[in-house]
Amino acid sequence: MPVVKCSVANCHYWGEGNKCQADAIMVDIDQHSDAKYHEEIGGEFVDSNHQDYAARISADTCCHTFKPKKAH
Fold first, then answer.
1. Residue 63 included in any domain
2. For the DUF1540 domain, which residue ranges apply (predicted)?
3. Tens of pLDDT along 20-46?
4. Does some domain include residue 12?
5. Is the dihedral of CA 53, 56, 60, 63 positive or negative?
């Protein structure tokens, strides 16, 4: 798996050095930011069949893998 850098330190999967520790990462277009996925890969909910061609730049996309860290 490639190294995925993420600066969202309040994410459950955030790791030291801004490295994402998730087993799978789901990225979609902003228009689907409220989508709910039902397929599970490595404990993460994803959609491995859907494809979009609407993103022109990185700002048109969002990470669905994010989940907030639980307070200790």
1. yes
2. 4-66
3. 999 888 787 777 667 776 666 666 666
4. no
5. positive
